[in-house]
């Protein structure tokens, strides 16, 4: 596919007129920064497979400079993730430095284990909201999934986040057939009682066809559940620029369903750039062959103007991973 490498990036008219768009007319609104590959749990479905060797990690100062340049390009939302971002000893400083730049929204995705100790300080540093990965209310199931006996710490983290003033607090529940699919409504009650939004996440597919056996064993199709939610909800909203993801309002609570991203709809509505822990801009979630290093140019003395050109190079590299011609990446014949 012709990426139009020499085509100048345009600004969008209307609501997002201050946003740069890529060559496929997608505005760039948010930046997701993975600040570490390290983690303190070992979820069996995680592609990091728990603790991984530590490579170079960006410093808080480097992240602050990167987001300053990103803001000049129109980025207005920052999400910090990992690994587990709260294992960083300087996480409060990271949030404080990013918040000093001035963004509409700063959020973190965490497993919640360390959140109880850090929630108040994170809020004071400038964090707006948090997503907590929390798949079960059953201690034995939690131990099976994470390989760690930390469930009470995670539950406490959710409640401390609410008490600290973070809003919204969301629980990310990866639903797996035969493991926790029977807990969906129990988790919904837990979230509703605590004023938390429940996000039900369908197990992620990847282009690695060798994982098909795993997916077949644990994959839970959300289609039937979404039909039920549509019938019983008092209101349904679509999240613009979030793949038209639906939010269902049920009995005073809120459920959001996150379907797999291996589809053209996900790519068509993608408005996010990503940064790897070692400081490379990742134009596409599902590709690693077009990364653009931004930390090395910083170390080589690049000015902010030159760093902006590095960002523009990455934006010019953005191409929908899934198009009609390549949406099916596995050979079904085996």
Q: Secondary structure elements and their pairing?
A:
Layout: E1 10-11, E2 20-21, E3 30-34, H1 60-72, E4 77-81, H2 91-101, E5 105-110, H3 115-125, E6 129-133, H4 139-146, H5 151-164, E7 169-175, H6 184-193, E8 197-202, H7 212-218, H8 223-232, E9 235-239, E10 245-250, E11 253-258, H9 264-268, E12 272-275, E13 280-282, E14 292-293, H10 295-299, H11 304-316
Parallel strand pairs: 3-4, 3-12, 4-5, 5-6, 6-7, 7-8, 8-11
Antiparallel strand pairs: 1-2, 9-10, 10-11, 12-13, 13-14
Helix pairs in contact: 1-2, 1-11, 2-3, 3-5
Summarize the structure.
By secondary structure, the protein is of the alpha/beta class. It is built from eleven helices and 14 strands.
Per CATH, the architecture is: Alpha-Beta Barrel
The level 1 CATH classification is Alpha Beta
Q: CATH superfamily name?
A: Aldolase class I
What is the subunit arrangement here? single chain
Kindly, what is the distance between the CA atoms of the first and last residues, rounded to a whole number of angstroms?
A: 27 Å
* CATH topology assignment: TIM Barrel
Mean pLDDT: 86
Can you tell me the residue ranges where pLDDT is under 50 for at least 5 consecutive residues?
A: 1-14, 325-334
Structural class: alpha/beta
Shape: globular
Helix content: 25-40%
Radius of gyration: 20 Å
Describe the strand arrangement of the main beta sheet, using strand numbers.
9-10-11-8-7-6-5-4-3-12-13-14
